[in-house]
Write a structure and sequence with these properties.
It is a single chain. This protein is an alpha+beta fold. It has helices at 6-17, 22-34, 45-64, 69-76, 93-107, 123-128, 159-172, 177-190, 193-200, and strands at residues 82-88, 112-118, 139-144, 150-154. It is globular, with a radius of gyration of 16 Å. The longest helix has 20 residues, at 45-64. Keywords: Isomerase. This is Thiol-disulfide isomerase/thioredoxin. It comes from Kordia periserrulae.
Length: 203
Amino acid sequence: MTVTTTHIKDIIAESLTKSMSYEAYRTLVQNLVAEGKSTGDVQTEALSTYSMLNDKRMQRLNKTIKLSEEAIAEIKAYTGDVTWLVLTESWCGDAAQTMPVINKVAELNENITLKVVLRDDNDALMNEFLTNGGKSIPKLIAIDNTSKNVIGDWGPRPSKATKMVNDFKAKHGTLTPEFKKDLQIWYNKDKGQNTIEDLLKLI
């Protein structure tokens, strides 16, 4: 069991007061997209376009994600009592591909409560869960509801996508627009299965 400092527990508690359900997050994004906006402090045409594309991705994934009978049984057998607190923003392509999967898993077990917060509104929390020094999202923080300890985290990408990104960066130094397209193609082919595999390791 991870021992979480009082400092981090206070930050998490503060962020939880600002959190919303997945359904409320989806409604927020849809309303912003209708206004030509995105979540976050910075508003640009590009971020609005990404948000619109991501809204469509999430709508599609909400309807099409399939879990194996084995995965469903494993999720339903979980007897812990946790909150999955996820940092995200509407413009993030990785979040659009994984948030519906996270929600689908959480829906299968009443012992898993999913809460969503926006990265730009929760800087202190984000700074406690950086990825290689960066504010990469989505970031899922698993919190034991009894002890309030952080018992695991996940993100910003499923493990296979993370390897793809790391390998490409090692070879080319930075991610190109072409690679980002290839990554979205991988997500579409994977259909959330690698994310499900990763999440099963959290429970």
